[in-house]
Write a structure and sequence with these properties.
- By secondary structure, the protein is α+β, with helices and mostly antiparallel strands.
- The strands form two sheets. Strands 1, 2, 3, 4, 5, 6, 7, 8, 9, 12 and 13 form an eleven-stranded mixed sheet that branches. A two-stranded antiparallel ribbon has the order 10-11.
- A hairpin with a 2-residue loop joins β12 and β13.
């Protein structure tokens, strides 16, 4: 239509130039006006169509984005329900009490390191060294010692020391009875002289306020619920040390009811956004649950501590200490951010292992009066947790 109108105008222009009447000129002006109006309406219609198309495209993009978000949310929900991507599925957390004994023995044998007549084994969390208050058919390292020692090639090996049930790390054995006795005496002497150095790695929920520090808190033991647990004594009297506090329950012959405990700590790396850190802990001697008690007392408990972390509450989002006699052991509350970062839903948190690993010990003047350093790396799930929490110190990568 526009093309034909243009041709008509062209003809009238030629007529006008040849000197035709005023009426003809008037018709020309009228046609020009009609053409301009028609052109404007066409442009307006075109713009309307363009805007409509752009609006429809924007709506489609928003709908597609909403669908993708919904799909990702469903996938993440399924992932959380199944624990996929978390340390519970990949690489998985060893549960000694549920493993086949042959598989557990293979796991222990593969981790064994022999150095200067000392056998070091990386003990998984949840494996007690010897029996305790649990059932008689409980799997312990002592019950598997003959098979493990035979597989390592030292059938006469004997246990000297190791981490507690909940923790992972160095389990030390002498290659025979005589060596185990010598090693035990050397460890005791080094403890008294404070020349023995045991190093642990702990992933904490919360970040210490100082990069380095020293915790010196006396720990006593009380029967809380059906467990004997450590409690910080804020102002123990000399008399209480002398009479060992005389508890109403019968303590183990190896347990000191009140013990002065010292822990050195160093923040290796931190994640401010997730409020977590990797902390190196150094001790010369240890009492039961010392590191867990000290760290929870400072309001940054070990990740996976389902015993002492319940002593920390929150007011307006800030951690506050609770009465240890009222706060019974319970599944740790790690908060929504950490839970999301670890790809765990609430129903799986209780399966989170204690992220406390005894990785290094230095024995002074052990072999030919030389200091001997023995080290075992952390378990695979420990590495995976560091990756998920974006904690990647060079120290661990080089180890």
């Amino acid at each position: 239509m526009n093309k034909s109108m243009f041709v008509l105008l062209r003809k009238f222009s030629l007529v006008f130039n040849k000197g035709y009447s005023n009426q003809t000129y008037g018709n020309l002006v009228q046609l020009q006006s009609i053409w301009a109006t028609s052109h404007f309406q066409s442009c307006q219609c075109l713009c309307t169509n363009v805007h409509a198309a752009a609006a429809q495209k924007s709506i489609r993009q928003e709908e597609d984005s909403a669908k993708l978000k919904k799909k990702a949310k469903r996938a993440r929900k399924k992932q959380l329900l199944d624990g996929l991507g978390s340390i519970l599925k990949d690489p998985g957390v060893p549960v000694p009490q549920k493993m086949q004994q042959s598989d557990l023995i293979d796991c222990l044998v593969k981790s064994a390191v022999v150095q200067d007549n000392i056998i070091a084994i990386s003990k998984p969390p949840g494996l007690p060294i010897s029996g305790g208050q649990k059932s008689d058919d409980e799997v312990t390292f002592v019950s598997m010692l003959p098979e493990v020692a035979e597989a390592i090639g030292h059938p006469s090996a004997e246990i000297v020391t190791g981490p507690e049930r909940e923790a992972s790390g160095l389990l030390l054995l002498g290659h025979n009875k005589a060596c185990a006795g010598e090693l035990s005496k050397a460890l005791s002497a080094a403890k008294k002289s404070k020349s023995l150095c045991r190093r642990y790695w702990a992933i904490t929920v919360g970040i210490p306020s100082q990069e380095q520090g020293f915790i010196s808190e006396t720990i006593g033991f009380e029967k809380i619920g059906d467990q004997v647990l450590g409690v910080v004594r804020h102002d123990p009297s000399k008399a209480s040390f002398k009479r060992k506090h005389v508890p109403s329950w019968k303590p183990s012959k190896h347990m000191e009811v009140n013990k002065k405990a010292e822990t050195h700590y160093n923040v290796v790396c931190r994640n401010e956004e997730l409020n977590c850190a990797l902390v190196e802990l150094k001790i010369h001697s240890a009492c039961k649950h010392q590191l867990q008690v000290h760290l929870s007392h400072r309001l940054h408990p070990v990740l996976g501590d389902h015993i002492y972390s319940s002593r920390i509450g929150k007011i307006l989002g800030l951690p506050v200490p609770l009465d240890p006699y009222e706060a019974l052991p319970a599944t740790q509350d790690i908060g929504p951010q950490l839970k999301q970062a670890l790809l765990l839903r609430r129903g799986l948190i209780h399966m989170l292992p204690l992220h406390l690993h005894w990785y290094d010990v230095t024995l002074p003047k052990w072999n030919s009066n030389k200091d001997v350093c023995i080290r075992v790396p952390p378990p695979d799930y420990f590495w995976k947790t560091l990756q998920l929490l974006n904690l990647s110190p060079p120290l661990l990568q080089d180890s």
